[in-house]
What we know:
It is built from 5 helices and 5 strands; from the N terminus they run αααααβββββ. It is α+β, with helices and mostly antiparallel strands. Strands 1, 2, 3, 4 and 5 form a 5-stranded antiparallel sheet that branches.
Amino acid sequence: MKxxxxxxxxxxxxxxxxxxxxxxxxxxxPADTIKPNNGIxxxxxxxxxxxxxxxxxxxxxxAGIEQTWEFAHPNNKKFTGPLEKFKAMLSGDSYKMLLNHIxxxxxxxxxxxxxxxxEVTILGEGKNYYKFRWMVEKFNLEGPLKDCWLxxxxxxxxxLGSSI
Length: 164
């Protein structure tokens, strides 16, 4: 009887350890990057990109920039890439207010079957507002991105002044 009880305790300890390690892994595992697919609408593309940039360093440094890069149109990537160049561009003076911003608002300006334009207002970390024009187009060539909405352009920011 003592022998069975001993094995029972070992088994119980083993299961508890597996459970603890599983929880630790789940909590510390980085979130997966969302990949473009034809089920994601243009507004959602902009929303995904802005939420990621708002929390740029979560779960790792520049995760938001990498997520944003996933939804960049191939023609846009030709001018803004590779990824390291894109990271430097977004960290530069022209776009750094997008990183770790406080809040954002997305307003649809135009929507057709293949093109969407949005006015995006950002409240930056410095409590200043900035306005951008965000252009999203449906990719129409064959391949894994066919019929996916992707960002083709983001304007230079227009400063709207302080929120204070």
